[in-house]
Amino acid sequence: MTHFNTLDAIEEGAALGILSAADKVMATTQFVERQTRGIAAVRELHKPEELDVTCSEDCEEHEDDHPIVAKLTVCNHCYGLAIEVDDYYGENGIAREFLHPCQTVRALDEAGA
Which domain of life is it from (predicted)? Predict the structure, then answer.
């Protein structure tokens, strides 16, 4: 399967004279706007959510009357999917891949998006 690159297509259209300079600018601007909206939608889906978590009963610092409560920031979407698959997910700990920033957000950040 051949990968289609929109920016290359715009450049080629301009080079062939199919797109005027103004059309090229407009097409590039529209492409960037679509990409920006898409990235914003992904970031909204993978936004951070703060949870109150307690330590496990075998924790050395655990007190029966006053369990230790901590804040843990997870990815709303990734953690939500884990809960959908397993209603009891998180009772024995939360996997690193569900912490925020999740792999999706880190990939966007690393790409500068």
Answer: Bacteria
